[in-house]
Amino acid sequence: MRNRICLAAAVLCALAGEPAAAQGRTSSVLDCRVTVVFNQAPLESVLRTLKRQYGIRISYSNTALNLRQPVTLNAQNQPLRQVLGEVLEGKNIGYELVGDQLVLHPAPPKAAPAAKPAPAAAPAATTTTVSKAVIDKAPDAAPAAAATPAPRPAAPAETTRPAAPEKTPVRPKTDKAPAQKTSAKPASSAPAASAKGRTATGGKAPGASSAPAGKATKAAKPAGKAGQAAESAPEPAVKVPDNTPANDPGATASAAPAPGPDAATQTPPAAATPPPAAPADSVASAAAPAVEPPAEEPARAYTKAAQISFLGPLGSNGLRSGQTVNHVSINVLGGYAAGVEGFEAAGLFNVDRDTVAGVQLAGLANVVGRNLDGFQAAGLANVLGGSGTGWQAAGLLNVATRPVAGAQTAGLFNFVGPRKRTAVLTASVDPASGAETTRYEAGPEQAGGKPAVQAAGLFNVSLASMRGGQVAGLFNVTKETRGVQAAGLFNVAGTVRGVQVAGLVNFADSVQGVSLAPFNFVVHGYHRLELTHSETWPVTASLKLGGSAAFYTFLTAAYDGFGSGPRRWAAGYGAGTDMWSRRRLSLSLDLATMQVNEEQRGLTKELNLHNQLRLLLGLTPFKPSSHIRLVAGPTVSLLVTRRFDTTEGRVYSNLSQGRKLWLDEGNATTKVLGWYGYSVGLRF
Question: Does pTM top 0.70 for this prediction?
Fold first, then answer.
């Protein structure tokens, strides 16, 4: 017997300690920061948004709660506790925290302030006989004590029998003064209930007055000034609880010994004062409506100083491996745990379903369900289900579904997912049909954006903003870059605030910096078409593209063959900058190089390169916002040729014919010629 008593005491102590631990683990649920915007959105849509956007587990009953109540809220980085208080305010809904899960339940409404009653003598003690019928209409004889009727909480429907009409005037008996006569109107027009032990509200069935106290409720006491109400004020209504036997609807609730036969006849009150509502985040008391238990209990978490395992549950934690947070974890082949706060190493892999704070090493792979705060290294891959702060290093790849503040280095590629975005739910109602339409819109991106670096042998992909840099052998892709983006082939970015360097081409939406590549395509960038005439080429066309006027590149082509002279044409590439710009004036400097083809048939295969430096002054002749600008300025040409002219019998180019040369150098195989010229034209 003694052993049984000791065992029972030990079990009770263990169960008593668990709620405190669970409260410490789950207190962070109500403290998490939430950013949401709702405009007349149904409550059910609001709850679904909190579930989906922030992973909050919420349970509720669709039948017991009114989920179509509109919600208008604008919360920016506020605790979930405060947001829930504003969302559920005035909706007769409360909640309690069960583990890390929020359980919503009906809450009694707040009572309206009662009218101040007229001074009168205290009412006499009475004994009230209550039938199971629910009386909906109050007498007209108590206007002084009338209060706003409180809505009854939703409950399962039950069949009730209305009370018989009351025609006898009420004469409550008092000890100090004779009671004032009050006439009561009929409580209901329905027929009176007839069965064993059933009477009208004013009567009492034989034997009904001796009902057990546990099966009847006490009459509500008047609170505050209501206790000094006049004798004509009715007593508060008494509701028979659900555990009253169904075959004893005439059970009574005794407030005091009956002073006389007249005390058995009472009229129903106008309203009952409900109990005060519990705080929003408090645990429901015994008087709160019953709430269905959640479908899934949250997993308990344990903490161990150290553990060692061979593979998964084959270790010191056993079957509790997935529920244990370890400070030191050594896995021979592979391990599985709830999290790590310290150090973890494995020969093959580590799997942690929650958070790793510290150092994690694996021969093949590391998999973390939520967040990383520290260093993670693997021979093949690191996979992170949330955000991270620190360094991910892998032989092949790093993958994180949320941004990593720190560094990612991989032999092949790095991937980072987008930041969490707030969901703005808008609701509209058609006045004609009454149909409600809801729509989710992407809200602002959550705050964040600490410096980060991605370096990979092949490519980097970031669906979030990068503050730092991306370096890859082939290409980089990011939503926004603040820093340097360098790739051997191409770069793709939404907004560039810094420098883009690529071996071939840069793509961007807008650039607040410089894009350096042979080709730069920027949607909201610098796009110009220039048509000019010079002393060398009658027609020259240049297509200028860049992130901004500070630096651009262009493709250029020229043609000469309109007259009787020999036909020639050229094509090439150039770069330039707008050194100075005002509303109507600008000054640009361009450098172009073109390969000149002087053969009448075929192409010139020898080197025949025309290099030209242009200093062009631009003028807008019309209004400043016009897209047409006149350009003109001096040029400096430098021709490098190895073309052998059979007619001349030497290295020669027709391009320099008739020019006043300031440079004429070379030998039998190469000639370098220089001259001054001009360029004039239009820029669109």
Answer: no
